[in-house]
């Protein structure tokens, strides 16, 4: 079975999920504001939490860099903006779908 991986394009406000070389999903996202940018680099999904509460919406997927993650939101109008403290923010219905499609350990590349 081909390996799944996530590629995040902060400048395009886009998260892509690949299986092998084929893009199987893509979602609009919000990213870090200029003072707290989303950190470029190669990471992995380290934790997965359902219903973390508050600003994290319905799902949290913590990255291997502490204090950063891919999560839902309680402010859907922020998607498409550079407004977060560095995390990748998604619509709750999108993060719930992605949560089911990825495992702990999957590669996350932030360009």
TrEMBL record:
GO cellular component: extracellular region
Species classification: Bacteria, Bacillati, Bacillota, Clostridia, Eubacteriales
Molecular functions (GO terms): glycosyltransferase activity; peptidoglycan L,D-transpeptidase activity
Keyword Phosphoprotein appears in the UniProt entry: no
Catalytic residues (positions): 71, 87
Family under the similarity heading: Belongs to the YkuD family.
GO BP term, example: regulation of cell shape
InterPro entries referenced in this protein's UniProt entry, alphabetically: LD-transpeptidase, LD_TPept_cat_dom, Transpep_catalytic_dom
Pathway noted in the entry: Cell wall biogenesis; peptidoglycan biosynthesis
Coiled coil regions in record: none
Pfam families named among the record's database cross-references: YkuD
Keyword vocabulary terms for this entry: Cell shape, Cell wall biogenesis/degradation, Glycosyltransferase, Hydrolase, Peptidoglycan synthesis, Transferase
Name of the protein described by the UniProt record: L,D-TPase catalytic domain-containing protein
L,D-TPase catalytic domain: residues covered: 4-111
